[in-house]
Design goal:
alpha+beta; single chain; Alpha-Beta Plaits; four-stranded antiparallel β-sheet; 23% strand
Amino acid sequence: MYVYYRVAAADEDAATDGVRRLLEAVTRATGVKGRAMRRQDDPGTWMEVYEAVGDTAAFCEKLAGIAAAEGLGTLAMDGVRHVERFVEPAPCA
């Protein structure tokens, strides 16, 4: 699962602290250890990566609650944390 959003340069310190707290809280609440990255050619684009998520609906609900508690939605420039889910493709026959 991938979550991406844009952060204004003025909010970088607050976002760094918030994402660190978010990742710690998500690990405590779900057992899933996420990681954060920033786009190399555009440091205002941030991404969280969560792998090996079993029940995606339950995980997304917990993640949204923790992100709201940490105020990360307010740090996203457009107020939106975009969630994308990818799965392995079916093997070719």
